[in-house]
Each structure stands twice: as C-alpha cells, then as structure tokens.
What does this fold into?
Amino acid sequence: MPTAHVPPSRAAQARTSHTRTLEWPTLLLALGVHAVFLGLVLAAPHVGIWAYLALVPVLTLHSSLQHEVLHGHPFRAPRLNWIFVALPLGMFVPYWRFRALHIAHHRDPALTDPFDDPESWYRDPCDWAGMSPVKRWFLTATNTLAGRMLLGPIAGMAGLVAGDARAILAGRRDVLAAWAEHLAALALLVWLLRQVPGFSLTGYVAACYGASVLLCLRTFLEHRAEDAVGHRSVIIEESGPLAALFLFNSLHAVHHLDPSLPWYGLRAAYARDRAQVIAANGGYVYRSYAQIIRRYAFRCKEPVVHPLRGTAAGLRTPDASAEASRTAFAPEGVSPGARVSGET
It folds into this structure.
C-alpha cells in the first residue's frame, strides 16, 4: 500500500511480498475456476437447473479473476495473463474493453466524475435537466439496490454496445479489435458448449446474466462523490462467501490505495492497517452485504445528479474529445453513461 497511507516499513514489505514471488494462488484459482466450470457444463444435461444455478457463482468468480488479471496478475505481461481468461465465459463483455475502461477508472482524481470515470453512475446536472421523465425514473430506480441488480446489467450492456459502436464509427481501431477478438472467442465458446449433448444455451445465458446481477451487488456503492479523493472508495468488512466470490475486492479502498496488490493480500493489508485505511477513506465502511441490502434494497443510496459538478472538486467540464469517445459501460460498475478515451 502507498507510503502516503501506510508506515514506510510496512509499505515496503507489502510491495516486495507481492511483486517478487510467483503468484501460485492466482494460478491455482484460474485452474480451479475452469475445472469447476467444465464439470458443471458436463453435469448440466443430467442434473438440470441445479447446474445452471451453480454456474452463477462460478461465472461471478471468473469475472473477479478477469479483474485480477487486468491488474497484472499472475504475470506482468498483459497477453500472457489474458490466456487465463481468453474464453469469455461471462459472454457479454470484451476483455480488452473491460481492461481499458477499468484502468481509466483507476485515475483516482476523476473517481465518480460522470465524464471521466467510466464506472460512474452519476449524471451531470445539465444532462439530468434535459432528460425525459421516463429516463429520470429509470436512473432513479437503478440507484436502489434492487433496481441496480435487476436493470443494471441490461442498461450497462446496451450502453456498452451503443457507445462502442459510436467509437468504432469514429475510427477507434482498438475498440474494433477488442470486439472482433471477443466475438471470435465467443463463437468458439458457443461451439464448444454445443458439443455437449443436452446442454441448454438458454440456461447458460441466464446463468451469465445472474452473475452480472450478483456483481451489481458488489459494485453498487463501491464509490461515492466526496471532495476528498481518498473518501470516495468503500470498505465492506465481510469476509464470507460473497467477499470470497469477489476476491475481497469488497475492501475496495485498499484496492485503490494499491491496485497492484493481489487478491490474497488484501485482507492481511487491511487487518494490518485498518485504522489508517478507515481514516484515509473518511469512515466509508459497512459491516456486511446484508447491512447494505437492508438499507438500500428499495431506497436510493444518493441522488443521481453528481453533487460536486460545478464545484472546485477537480471535476472538469467535458470537452469535444470526451464526447466523441463516449463509452457507456464498464463491467465493474455497469455504468450506463460514462465517457472514456483509453486504449486497449
């Protein structure tokens, strides 16, 4: 974790511990996820709906693995890491778009900015003023946990396709290449699944959607709009099955303090420096996902309109290049209205 938030000796220890060793936990995780996935696919024709339900957490874990891979694990070479997630088991999102958008999201000074953070669900006041009542209702509904989980994946995917189509028409070859590679890999995945007699592609698509729904629980309040950049990322202290499925990215403030820290180091880093982390993130802490569900299932967590637009919080007015490169989605946050101009 950075020396700005952690005593120097501990920061040095953290850096050396996760950059100088072969990351066997991540390697074994990748092998395990694909082995369980294969077992469930082969079992599905015999056990029916139970296999497809069991695929939901496996596909969720695969998405968490993709997040780990794009941050440079288990190896430093991006293409070598990509091998571990080359088959798009989750179907919907091109990996290289996920990577480009999520890395752009890690420009912490722009966190939550509706124009520069591709994972922001906030909207600019001027955009909001020009929206129809139906669109305002939709965005307000997705600011509740139930609405985000039910509608968020649909909104996100629609926004991704629309935004990337505009980018491709504007000449973004990197976006075109990411989609071409994704569609080729997706075709291979579908072909392989069709080789299993009795396997239901409809059931599989439903399982993929279920995984997207579950991921919306994790991302629902990962970030909030605050003047202090360090106060914008959450800590959810739960260490149960959900946290494990998310590879402990629920300790999101720790992840943003040091994005290179591997998943299996997050809990130890937080336990070691809990007081400093909570002080650094302004006490933005929840005990568990159950607490979040009780509080926000049918209640908006905050306004849709970004509260810091037009203030001196470092959030800028969009320029022409941002508008031209408008993207509408990042898988981690499933945002339907962000812009980013990163490359894959």
About this structure: The first strand starts at residue 235 and ends at 236.
